[in-house]
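Hi support team,

I submitted a single chain yesterday and got back a structure, but I'm not sure I'm reading the token output correctly. Could someone confirm the output below corresponds to the sequence I sent? I've pasted both exactly as they appear in my results page.

Thanks,
R.
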Amino acid sequence: MSRTAIPFQTSDISGLARSLRAQLANHDAVPGHVELLNMLARSIGCRNFQQLRAQADAAPTTVIVAAEASPPVDLRAVERTGRCFARDGRLMRWPAKRGDQVLALWGLWSQLPPRQMFTEREISEVLRGLHDFGDHALLRRELYEARLVTRTLDGRDYQRIERPPTVDAAAVIAQLKVGQPAR
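Hi R., thanks for writing in. Yes, this is the structure output for that exact sequence:
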């Protein structure tokens, strides 16, 4: 029985490797043949291997390239960061890893009112209400350094910067909106 060749190409081998690593880490045992095919297909933006095959059958002369596919979500980082937040969205503790700290900052950013100017005292009050570990100055400074808020040169006025979050940050923000319980 002959097999149909299904083209497989990616423009980002690093993204492919990260996606496969994340999927394999979440898998309990060594994946079987079909499970591995599904993982490969998901790593380039398809839902599963059947979708990849259908795309190849629909356009047999073209090569499937996942240039527009978004990078995979780092599920471990999202989960670690999610554990730092309480069910009500308050940051209970400052994460140890820098990458998790940035994701936590995105979570706080999502809770700041958009297009509103704050004095230093007002932004400090808002941040006091969003965390439990008592260092609003650290959060204010880190939000500024991560370019999630802007401030005037004299440091008196602050405003949230409107920009799209990274895929990992979007996953953390989605968890906060759903009100995931702290783990």
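A quick pointer for reading it: Residues 1-69 form one domain. Let us know if anything else looks off.

Best,
Support desk
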